TrEMBL record:
UniProt cofactor(s): FAD
Co-factor note (free text): Binds 1 FAD per dimer.
Record's keyword annotation contains tRNA-binding: no
Name of the featured protein: Electron transfer flavoprotein subunit alpha/FixB family protein
Amino acid sequence: MSDALDTAAKPIKKPKRVLPERFKSYKGVWVFIEHEHGHVHPVSWELLGKGRELADKLGVELAGVLMGGDGDEIRAITAEVGAHGTDLCYLAQHPVLHDYRNQSYTLGMTELVNTYQPEILLLGATTQGRDLAGSVATTLLTGLTADCTGLDIDPSDRSLLSSRPTFGGSLMCTIVNLATRPQMATVRPRVMPMPARDPARPARVVEHALQLDESAIVTKVLDFIPDARADKPQLPFADFIVSGGRGLGKPENFQLVAELARTLGAEVGASRPAVHAGWADAERQVGQSGKTVRPKLYIAAGISGAVQHRVGMEGADAIAGINLDPGAPLFDFANYALIGNVTELLPALDKAFARRLATARTQRAQAHEEADRGEV
C-alpha cells in the first residue's frame, strides 16, 4: 500500500468519545481462517501478516480462529496457522460446522467472541467472509468496515483505522469504531502481501466446545458442486498483467493489449470504463469494483490511474504506464512512464519483448547444449 493512499498513516480527527467500560477488557487481534474441503483461502494467510503487524503495535497476541467439522483434516490446519505468524489458534470443531452455513458459523463465531473478547476481528472479503462478517457484526451490535485497502492502529486510543475508497472510488476515507468492540473489517484477496512462512513457529491451540444443534439450523447442505473456473481468467494470482483502458480509443485497439499479453505470457486486464464500453469481459476488470491484483509486472495502457483503478493494482511489484497525457494520475505512482500514443507504443513494446525473449530462449538452449556436451 502506497503512502499516498494509506490514509491510515495520517492523523485522524476524531470526536471525543470514551469507550464503554464493558469493552475495555477486550484485547487481541483475531483473523478468521476461511477454508473449504481442507484448503485454506490465501486471503487468510495475507490477513495474518497484517494482523501480526497490528498486534505488535498494540502489544497483544495474534490469534487465528478456525472452525470446522470433527476430524484430523481441520486440526492439521492449526500448524499452518502458527507457521504464518500467530501466537495461538482458537479451534472449534463440531459436526454442524462440517460445511459452511451462515447460521451455524455465526453462532460459533459470536460465542467465541463473547467468551474470549478480542478487540479486532478481520475476515477476508470473499463470498464466505462477507456473508459471515455482516451477520456476526449485526449479532454483536458492532461496527464493520468492508473492502478495506489499508489497516493501521491509532496509538492514542488503540482504535483500528480502516481505510477504503468511497464516492465511486474518487476519494479515500478512514473509518473508526469508537464505541463498540470488536472492531471488524474485511479485506479483499491480494490487497495485503503474503507473509513469510516459518514452519518452526509454534502456536498454542485453544480448543473450545461449541453447543450447537443441527435441528436448530434451518439450512441444509444437499450436495457440493465445484465451481469450474479452469477456463476463466485468474487475475488475482497472475504474475504478469497487461491492462487496457478507454485511452485505446476504440474497441479494435484492445487487441493490441491481448497481443502484448500473449507475447509476455500475461493475463489481460481492463479498466472499468473499458468493461462498461463492452471492450472486455467483467471478469477482467481491475479496480475497486473488479479484481485486486498483485503481479510482478503490471502494464497499464490507456488508463488514467484514477483511485478506483489504483486500489486494485498498486500492490504490483512494478507498474509501467502508457498514456498520451503526461499529467495522468497513473504516472504519480508508476515505476515506469511511457508518454505517447498507446496504439504506437504497444506494438513497439510487443516487438521489443518478442526479440528479447527470443534471444533469451536461444541463449538458454545453447547453454543446455553445451552442458550436455560436458563443456560447462
